[in-house]
From TrEMBL:
This is Uncharacterized protein. Keywords: Membrane, Transmembrane, Transmembrane helix. The chain crosses the membrane at residues 7-26. It comes from Anopheles sinensis. It comes from the Eukaryota.
Amino acid sequence: MIKEPPVRALVIVFVLAIGVSPISIVRHPERFNEQLINYKGRGESGWFFELASEGYYTGAYDPIFTTNNETSYCAAQDCNPERNSELAKTDRIRRRVDPTFYGNPKTREQIWERNFAHVIMDNRQTLSLVSLLNKIIIKYLYSCIPIVLYDTYVGGTENYILEALFRDFPTTYITGRIGPNYTLDNQDILNPSGSQCRSYIIFLADVMMTRKVIGPQLNSYVVLIPRSSQWKLQEFLAAKQSRDIINLLVIGESYSVDKRINNEQPYVLYTHELYVDGLGANRPQVLTSWIGNKFSRSNVNLFPPKLRKGFAGHRFTVMAAHQPPYVIKRLITDGWEM
């Protein structure tokens, strides 16, 4: 009967074959891969090693130190004071490179989708905005020649919106550029010749500068596409800068916190109610929203009539001058009328 050798004997034989002591394997099992590399004939090169064309680097442990006839491995900053002092004098300190990947790796398609998502998103938002503007032009602005105005910001960074709009514009239009100081390069386009009416489509970065660009508009339709937040839009609609722009429609993009890839964001359409109290205040009003090439409220007039209830008791100061042969009628006579 053959008696099997004990397991301890096999371990000792195997350890002696690789040329290291059993104490190092028991105390430092993470050195087993390095021992296999040395066993296959790959020697040390600056305390870094390579395994099967993969970046297997240790770098955290120094070579073997022998103390009291025992072989052990330890970190460079713990067991080698001389090397620790040398590293402290230099600026570059070698750090440990961990070859283990933690987390969920992304595929190449997912990385491409993440890197190019903003291009797809901008394209979808642009097509949605152009479709909305074409619908407004055909229904409300067709009788008057639209004047398309844009500032330097939109013309420089978002010119793809203008290109898509001008490519499929449904009617004749006039275009103008707004300068850096919010003045038109050609002021004559605001003065129509004869009895021709005008309507405006304005792309503007700062919504508060609308009145400075076009001035007061009592009859013309004004479609404003600003690059401002929703809070800024509501502040403009409630301010006095929008009081003398009667037929005003503001289109603002609804920025969602959970803005996922390839999700089309809706456009919210605003207007204002004029003279809601005796102080002459304005009130922002949400008309509808546009998403998926349709309105959330289909039967809404985007340019509702204003001042239907008057001026809510607002007091006006009227000034007049005496101009013969016209005179101002006085309620009390003082003898000079005869």
